[in-house]
């Protein structure tokens, strides 16, 4: 039996997050980087997650790449498609989630899709259509200051309605708690009422499993990695999944580096904690803008550090510093400068013998993994909810952990490298 489930993720850390959930739930998963072609190897994967960098791309490009990924997945046999976006939505009213979901729905010939970014293990819950991060509304969380996708509204029905040409309804928590049959009835009622999307409330994994059960016959499901919790059970019930193979730790010997471009509170805390015991190097964005050889300096610095410890190189800054930098250079240019510098550093460090990479931030991971010319990843064991170790498939063996900006506890970097030793 080949591929059963296909997924399209709008960024690279999101893709590994989803792949991790599917692996934890007993599936063999491959993650491929960018739109696959006929040469893309997926081995014996039952689920394939296509990692795109479409979250903040121009809308036309995001739609085009997502449709190309969809066509490839269906040609490989995918029977159900997940469209994975961020558990904090990360898409302003002008964002790509609605247009991509509309295009996928049309191509798949379905009139309805669920919208559910909930990820309770990382504190993302949905109630009355409102997305919470921990005990705060999304719009009161640090996501309001995101450098590329500041989230100033927490109402998913409103956010989705602003992006799509379909109508958006709600599947309230009471229905979800009542069970899969009630969810299915509500979905049918929304459909009959002409709704193209239903935002599903979910505050626990149990809720997500229930929604997953209710969606067993949906050809398209959209959401965060949590929405995938119940899908493998559906496939098992249908006799499509056999015994799972436990994920393997990547076996690679060499030096370790953290490259961070995420400016999230979580990542900044992790960098500060790592700085208590490991050498750290902060990229000077103004020097990059002036044409200074910041890449060369970072590479020389890293190579001169004792081999005993990982090194940490970061562009990450607090909201005030990010705001000043963006005022000077524009948000897009500022982001691109840091992403390009970290990518160039990654390539040169790999050539200098660094082969264990923790990369913090979705856009950052997209840029670095592309620069390293990695085409596919094998998913390994989980480091923290939503973040597995992965191993690059291909000629050069590299271990990579692509960490979503907001994920992981303060000691995430230590935990990650400790797993490899
Ligand atoms: N000092 C800085 N000033 C301005 N922009 C920066 C700075 N440092 C990093 N950036 C940019 O901020 C963006 C952070 O986005 P990224 O997706 O990497 O992290 P994130 O959004 O926290 O993670 P995720 O998408 O996984 O939640 C990147 O484009 C990065 O280059
Ligand atoms: O869903 C999440 O929060 C993450 O997988 C992600 O998409 C971060 O970029």
UniProtKB/TrEMBL annotation:
Q: Which GO terms describe its molecular function?
A: kinase activity
EC numbers, comma separated: 2.7.1.217
Query: What range(s) does the Four-carbon acid sugar kinase nucleotide binding domain occupy?
Result: 257-413
Q: Which NCBIfam families match?
A: OxoTetrKin
Q: What does this protein do?
A: Catalyzes the ATP-dependent phosphorylation of 3-oxo-tetronate to 3-oxo-tetronate 4-phosphate.
UniProt similarity note: Belongs to the four-carbon acid sugar kinase family.
Protein name in the entry: 3-oxo-tetronate kinase
- Please report the organism this UniProt entry assigns to the protein: Tropicimonas aquimaris
| Gene symbol of the encoding locus | otnK
């Amino acid at each position: 039996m080949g591929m059963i489930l296909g997924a399209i993720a709008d960024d690279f850390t999101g893709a590994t997050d989803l792949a991790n959930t599917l692996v934890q739930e007993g599936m063999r998963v491959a993650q491929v980087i960018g739109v696959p072609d006929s040469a893309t190897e997926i081995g014996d994967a039952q689920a394939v997650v296509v990692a795109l960098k479409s979250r903040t791309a121009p809308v036309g490009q995001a739609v085009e790449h997502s449709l190309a990924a969809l066509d490839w997945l269906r040609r490989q046999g995918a029977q159900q498609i997940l469209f994975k976006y961020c558990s904090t939505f990360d898409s302003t009213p002008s964002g790509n989630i609605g247009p991509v979901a509309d295009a996928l729905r049309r191509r798949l010939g379905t009139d309805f899709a669920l919208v559910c970014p909930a990820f309770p293990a990382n504190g993302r819950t949905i109630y009355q259509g409102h997305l919470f991060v921990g005990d705060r509304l999304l719009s009161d969380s640090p996501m309001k200051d995101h450098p590329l996708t500041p989230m100033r509204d927490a109402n998913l029905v409103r956010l989705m309605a602003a992006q799509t040409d379909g109508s958006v309804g709600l599947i309230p928590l009471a229905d979800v708690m009542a069970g899969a049959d009630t969810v299915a009835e509500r979905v049918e009622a929304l459909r009959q009422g002409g709704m193209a999307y239903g935002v599903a409330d979910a505050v626990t994994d149990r809720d997500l499993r229930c929604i997953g059960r209710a969606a067993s016959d949906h050809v398209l499901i959209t959401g965060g990695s949590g929405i995938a919790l119940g899908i493998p059970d559906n496939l098992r019930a249908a006799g499509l999944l056999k015994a799972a193979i436990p994920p393997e730790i990547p076996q690679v010997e060499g030096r370790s580096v953290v490259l961070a471009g995420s400016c999230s509170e979580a990542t900044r805390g992790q960098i500060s904690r790592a700085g208590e015991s490991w050498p750290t190097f902060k990229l000077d964005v103004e020097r990059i803008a002036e044409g200074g050889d910041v890449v060369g300096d970072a590479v020389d610095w890293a190579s001169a550090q004792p081999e005993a410890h990982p090194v940490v190189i970061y562009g990450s800054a607090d909201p005030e510093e990010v705001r000043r930098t963006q005022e000077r250079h524009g948000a897009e240019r500022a982001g691109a400068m840091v992403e390009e510098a970290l990518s160039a550093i990654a390539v040169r460090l790999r050539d200098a013998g660094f082969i264990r990479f923790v990369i913090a931030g979705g856009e950052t991971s997209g840029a670095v993994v592309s620069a390293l010319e990695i085409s596919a990843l094998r998913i390994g064991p989980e480091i923290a909810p939503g973040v597995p170790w992965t191993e690059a498939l291909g000629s050069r063996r590299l271990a990579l952990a692509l960490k979503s900006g907001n994920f992981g506890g303060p000691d995430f970097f230590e935990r990650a490298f400790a797993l490899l030793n």
